[in-house]
Amino acid sequence: MAVTAKVAVEAAAYSFDRCYDYGIPPHLAERVKPGSMVLVPFGMGKAKPRMGVVLDVGEPEYLSKGLKNLYDAVPEEATLTPELLGLVGWLKEHTFCTYYEAVRAIIPYGAQYRAEMSPAGPILSKRLNRQTVSWYRLICSAAKLTAKQQKVADLLQSGEMRTAAELCELAGVTRGVVETMVRNGVLEAEVRERDVPVYENYRPIAEKVQLSADQWRSYTQLAEKLDAPQAQTALLHGVTGSGKTLIFVELIRKAVEDGKQCLVLVPEIGLTPQMVYRLKSAFGERVAVQHSALSNSERLDQWQQIQQEKADIVVGTRSAVFAPLERLGLIIIDEEQEHTYASETSPRYSAIEVAKYRAAYHKGLLLLASATPLCDDYYAAEQGRYTLSTLSARYNQQPLPSVELVDLRQELAHGNTGSISGRLAQEIARNLREDKQTILLLNRRGYQTVAMCESCGEVVKCKLCSVPLVYHKKENKLLCHYCGSTIAPKPEQCPDCSGKLRYTGFGTQRVEEELANIFPTARVLRLDTDTTQTKNSHERMLADFAAGRYDIMIGTQMVAKGLDFPNVSLVGVLGIDQMLFAQSYRAFERVFSLVTQVVGRSGRADAEGRALIQTVDPQNRILQLAAGQNYTEFYIEEIAARKLHLYPPFCAICVATFSAESEKETAQAAQAFANSLRSCAAAHKTIPLRVLGPAPAALAMLGGRYRYKLTVKCRNDVSFRRLLSEVLAEYHKGPFGGKVSLAVDFNNDNEA
User: Fold this and answer.
1) Which of 5, 178, 223, 279 is deepest in the core (most CB within 10 A)?
2) H/E element, 410
3) Could you tell me the pLDDT band of residue 3, with boundaries at 50, 70 and 90?
4) CA neighbor of 724 nearest in space, from 745, 741, 709
5) ∠ CA 114-117-122 to the nearest 5 degrees?
6) Cα pseudo-dihedral 10, 12, 17, 18, rounded to 10
7) CA–CA dist 513, 519 (Å, integer)
8) pLDDT, tens digit, for every residue of 433-458?
9) pLDDT by residue (tens digit) across 139-153?
10) What angle is formed at CA 85 by the lines to CA 123 and CA 352, rounded to 5 degrees?
11) Is the peptide bond before 694 cis (omega within 30 degrees of 0)?
């Protein structure tokens, strides 16, 4: 029986995403194996070339005279490792994506291939080729040379190789001199791929940092788990400023000395430079980086360094969890509570769950770390499924910041309608006098957040999304923060009744303006999505703030976590009340975490830390617990509420979101899917689940498409996933499959 390649093809609908048999022509026999990217003819009649991934090789499922052959296959070094190929199947099963969607998530764009036509037929070509540079060596020292050529030869006399640029600069000659020496057989050129340096501005640190007694206890506990013969998961719970990063460094040092590779994930691109420089200072060029803000060339270069085992340590955001490390022994996920570790596009994976898969495969240690862990993970530690390690005090024995809740109702009673309370203004003025820095958190960008008609009371909303437009003063326009739609210039009359529009609310732009009016000599830095769109802007701005070039930094959530500025002694929290009423069972958890994290940015060195939280409800239990950094009490109350109302960790939540341009068809599709799911569940009495809805999503329209959602409380196990897969397949074959898009997500907390 002939051996065939079993291939899953790109652009496959969920209902026909399976293996297809292809013949392997003799010239590809050595290259085709499980994990190979291939080019195949797909479809009836004149088949079009389509990318695919080989899931297996073996005998065909059935004999066919018309069995088609593969067109082409990638080189052996571009083949997925057995682990990453297994992860493709895991992603398909757990996130309900297609095989090739999983492949695209795992392999960065620059390392992918595409179809191309050649005289011989369809072939594969790289999407991106790394730039090359020629290196020259001296191969004939006895030749008669001109004076200029002799200078070049002298530079290469020791056998060292140099580039043309180096030779021209050091010898003071033109490139033509070097090329003439190559033609005359005096020099030999060797073409190498050009390195693309990233994060080079670091200073090596030779001495090891001394751990405190508290840190040493945690380190020894975790180092023991690192040496365990089986996979381990641990939770490092430490108050802000307790020195968790120092423990990371020492665990990485031990892992590398033991011949293992390490992966460190951070939740935001803005936090990457700080972690990269910290690790490069300790471990040098053996640190590689993976995140979406790198150019395709930079990311490809870093990916290939990892593939070639030139890196022992990889640092990055969510997608770095797929780095091709084959001796992976330690995975660290910092600020593990952050929602950014969950992908919002297909495949909708959780980086933490993928990390668990990889830690199990390599029998390594997965370390989750946070000052405010997810309740789900703290519960797992309480139940003994994770090892719990706790740091209860700050590293330098500094006390936690003193926190004051400022009652905004009193501010309004005294006529202050601005975004900065009188009390906060006093403390900022004190900081300016004492030459200390201040961080202000406001999780709303723009200038004013609502344009409301004084006549009809309607709010000006995006025509494509069911959200109010936000006024951006600098650009003089209303902007949708979801789809980017704009109205410019800023309208003064209601589009519905022509009444006068009144602009209210405040965002980071307005706070920046108020600060300039109150403190005209203060140097203010605004850090939000609007100001950080250019390459490396995060890094430059944070470096400028760290260097003392600014007195006050106002920003969104990106200023709240993971940053360490010794001169920051004051933190102000603005506009937190709105988050308390978000439509999510994690709303209280997120508010507690955000406030705790940003308060922890102050008082991390010698100066006493202070924090002010502006609120209309100073008696709010969540804010009071966050002010006291009292995670234990918050957890006890939150986990009791979760158990009472049956929310994670006491069940899993699966959210199916439907979207289409027709609201009627969207609602009908959601109802049909719900009926099918309930019917299948009734036939499988042993699979526990509750189906809630369907109902319009919290964000009822996005990008001109109506959205409905179905919420399922379930047990995320093999039985339920198999049931859901059957219902999905039927849906895609049915009348709504091609009309109403459907996304299934186990990491959605119902907020949108």
Assistant:
1) 5
2) helix 408-413
3) confident
4) 745
5) 75
6) -50
7) 10
8) 999 999 998 877 565 566 777 777 77
9) 887 778 998 998 988
10) 130
11) yes
